[in-house]
Amino acid sequence: MLESQDLQAIRALIAKAKRWDAFFGVLGILSLMVGVLTFSALFVDMAIQGIPRLDGNFFINFPSRRAENAGILSAWVGTVLVMFVTALAAVPLGVAAGVYLEEYAPKNWMTDIIEINITNLAGVPSIVYGLLALGLFVYQFGFGQSILSAGLTLALLILPVVIVATRESIRAIPQMIREGSYACGATNWQTVRDHILPYSSAGILTGIIIGMARAIGETAPIITIGALTFIAFLPNAPFAGDPPAGLFDWLFSPFTVMPIQMFNWTSRPEAAFQVNAAAAGFVLVLMTLLMNGAAIWLRYHLRKNIKW
Amino acid sequence: MSNATTINMDADPKLAIKAECRNFNFHYGDFQALKGINMPVYDKKITSLIGPSGCGKSTLLRSFNRMHDLYPGNRYGGEIVMHPDNTNLLAKEVDPIEVRMRISMVFQKPNPFPKSVFENVAYSLRVRGINNKSELEDRVQHSLKGAALWDEVKNRLNDLGANLSGGQQQRLCIARALASDPEIILFDEPTSALDPIATASIEELVVELCEKVTILIVTHNMQQAARISDFTAYMYLGELIEYGVTDQVFIKPKNKQTEDYITGRFG
Amino acid sequence: MSASTIVTLPLNQSLDLQVSDRLRKKASRHMKERVIEFLLFGAALISVFTTLAIVYVLVSESWVFFQHVPLKDFLFDTQWTPLFDDAHYGIMVLLSGTLTSSAVALMVALPLGTIIAVYLSEFAPFKVREISKPFLELLGGVPTIVYGYFALVFLTPLLQKIYPDLPGFNLLSAGLVMGVMIIPYVASLSEDAMRAVPMSLREGSYAMGATRLQTSLRVVVPAATSGIASAYILGISRAVGETMILAVAAGMQPNLTFNPADSGATITSYIVQVALGDLPHGSIGYQTIFAAGLTLMLMTLMFNLLGYWLRKRFREVY
To answer: Which of A101, A204, B261, C268 maximizes the CB count within 10 A of its CB?
Structure first.
């Protein structure tokens, strides 16, 4: 009973425990601050270094031996083309795999293997995908060190992200929606096409954007397949050039991408190239921030609007 | 309705009041869940709170040890006073942790921690700064005996609490609540997740416990309230409709609404 | 008896005749459904093929490598000079760089990530949580090449002010920045695990008079052990597999050292270094990167197996 205990002792104990509480609260905020400060330092430092370099010419110049003439034209065009291939491969495959696992897959060992496999792939270091692509796409399939190889490599890399996002947003659809559809006489595929995909599309889109944001910044696997760091030309547009290029010739063209261009400049000793690296890095960070921000915004609004 | 507050029962003069609600109100955000509750809780007696779901009985129970402080947007009004020291449990300067050390609680679903049987009970002692091994062993054993669980678990004290049966888990939670020598134990529908046999053993235990400690119990089972409690409070839509000695409330309720509920005409 | 059969039989038959046309499975529709299911299944199988292809490429190229280099040399030689005339292939050299930089990174990421997770899950007001979670996500989305640049041109000069002997390329600065990069992964996954702990356990603890910290450390964290273990394993995999930060900021000279203040190459940065050069396909230098990749893969596999074991061992029983 309390009467027999020393109330003062209890109070002292609580006060002590609460001091630890307060101490931990401060510790938590300080830990968060490490992240905030690092990010701010990184962003501000790069902005100060890089923004003065960001004039129109920077975007329409090829890389050059002279730092002040160098630009990121071939890099951003390369990034756009590689991302295009990546999206074209990863989105249908990832969404289809996600739909299969949620709506079709029977409960058996095959499904278990696929699921465990996807979890494991998400943890495979990105450079290993580079080695895979080097052995498989570049040499076995003979795609060479091309936009196609790079796009497919990154597609494999972000496939788990797209699959997981697809599955999660499909899983959020209540069973009664499916039952309603089947009760109308719809087939499995009609249910998926008319209900499951439309209702989960925003969630899937969020996953795709996050995956693409990751792909855009990936450097290691693309270097591994042998992307060149100095490219002073653009892939041929379809039917352009002499002799005229075919519709898909650009797929097999050598290329560079933004992060590789930045890496190239970062590893130069001259300070002027460091400035270029900062400028390219700033553009790169802005792109990923915008994409991730869009995904976060999308998810936030999704959560607010959907009511089943 | 508010006449419930003025009930003057032919009480035993030896009865001491352990705690009482004085014009107690409670809000979840803008929603007023409890309105002007006035009710005594007698020392070393069992008081049961009954009423249809949503009537506020659990809300009232959880106010006694300030569980509502865990969630934002909850507001208390009025007082819940604890005797003999006359402390208003709801006062800003009163620490909810101190309140919970004096008033412990047993929940609707057994919620043993993912720890051993021993550590589950020892936990409420450890948070009080008791870490001495032999003292812990003594008091854990004492509480497990008090919860009529010792004989069943004395050989598996290192087993996970979750490996016990449902009824044993609930008695483990009671032992946990007992270990720190509380003045009041709150029971929030403690048998609603249990089978009839486990329910009977918990009920028996609760009746035994009231020799040493004051008990406030929420139940949705009127027979249970009638079987075990000394006093009964009937609540409806956040108000206390009727309060009195259990036999009186069940045999000749003063309020028509109470009678309807007890006889099963609604609820 | 017989009368009723006489009455019902024709009725059944006539019903059969009336509806069978409409209820019969349409072969075309059935085929279409099967084809679609097969295509979707094929898409799901791509992931399995990816794994098989990774294993195949790594093992087959490494196989050729190990025809030339005895496994004993690979494991125990203390020099890594595959591109010199006097070639040595001691993977230990690259492993030391990987382990040292990962250790530095994890010493930053695991404690800070866990503290942030506990703070966000159990302490932080709703507003702080709502702002911090997306911010952490953004932090995790910054390309690693940018982190590498930051380590090289910002953190290393800063550290050199405190410790002037620090070389321009070093594992310390790369490791520290890598740690910050990994914080979001650890924090976010651990926090998810803690939030999955049912509220009833917390209430049980608070009802005993426990404080927030006591409830967090003694009830919530133990209950979320398996999830937190997964988060740690992911963090370790990230650290071991991280490439660009090290390629940029740690230098690429193979160096058998466990001193973070030295420069050094890691398994990953070595692969980048070779890929940047111009090694002919099929040469022994070319095959070294697959042997290095295989080592990396085996390490992550080991951590993943450890993760499975931990998850099984500490699976939550609420």
So the answer is: C268
Check if the interface score ipTM surpasses 0.85: yes
Q: What are the pLDDT tens digits along chain A (308 aa)?
A: 444 457 788 888 888 889 999 999 999 999 999 989 999 999 999 999 888 888 878 888 888 877 777 888 888 999 999 999 999 999 999 999 999 999 999 888 999 999 989 988 888 999 999 999 999 998 889 888 899 999 999 999 999 999 999 999 999 888 888 888 888 878 888 889 988 998 898 889 999 999 999 999 999 999 998 877 677 777 777 767 666 667 777 888 888 899 999 998 988 888 888 889 999 999 999 999 999 999 988 888 877 666 55
Query: Quick check: A116 contacting B, CB < 8 Å?
Result: no
d(C-alpha A277, C-alpha A260), whole Å: 10
Question: Which of A42, A210, A258, A260 should we substitute to test contact with C (largest number of C Cβ atoms within 10 Å)?
Answer: A42
For residues B145 and B90, the answer to whether their CB atoms sit within 8 Å is no
Selection from C136, C139, C99, C143 nearest residue C120 by Cα:
C136
State the number of CA atoms in the 13 A half-sphere of B131 facing the CB. 2
Residue B17: strand, helix, or coil: strand
A116 lies in the same domain as A233:
yes
Q: Which domains does chain B have, with CATH numbers?
A: 2-262 (3.40.50.300)
Residue A267 in tokens: 């590893």
| Residue C26 dihedral angles phi and psi, to the nearest 5° | -80, 125
Domain ranges across chain C? 2-68, 91-313
Q: How far apart are alpha carbons A294 and A209 in whole angstroms?
A: 8
- A38 with A60, same domain? no
Distance between CA atoms of residues A240 and A144, nearest Å: 22
CATH class of the region C91-313: mainly alpha
DSSP characters over A12-65: HHHHHHHHHHHHHHHHHHHHHHHHHHHHHHHHHHHHHHHGGG-SHHHHHPPP-S
CB-side exposure of A56: number of CA atoms within 13 Å?
A: 0
Confirm or reject contact between A22 and chain B (CB < 8 A): no
Among candidate residues A263, C207, A157, the one with its CA nearest the CA of residue B177? C207
Quote the strand ranges of chain B, DSSP E. Answer: 17-28, 31-42, 46-50, 74-82, 87-88, 103-106, 184-188, 214-218, 231-236, 239-245
Q: Please count the structural domains in chain A.
A: 2
Domain shared by A83 and A108, yes or no: yes
CB pairs under 8 A between A and C: 262
Q: Are C226 and C193 in contact (CB under 8 A)?
A: yes
Ramachandran sector of residue B129 (left: φ over 0; alpha: ψ -120 to 50; beta: rest): left
**Which CA distances in Å does C310 have to A120, A240, B170, C95, C296?**
15, 58, 29, 24, 21
Do A25 and A131 belong to one domain?
A: no
Instruction: Give the minimum alpha-carbon distance from A187 to chain B in angstroms, rounded to a whole number.
Output: 41
Q: Mark yes or no for CB contact C207/B126 under 8 Å.
A: no
Residues in chain C within 8 Å Cβ distance of A41: 150, 154
Residue ranges making up the domain that contains A85: 56-305
Chain B interface with C: residues with Cβ < 8 Å:
65, 67, 70, 72, 97-98, 100-101, 104-105, 107, 109, 111-115, 123-124, 126-128, 160, 162-163, 173, 176-177, 180
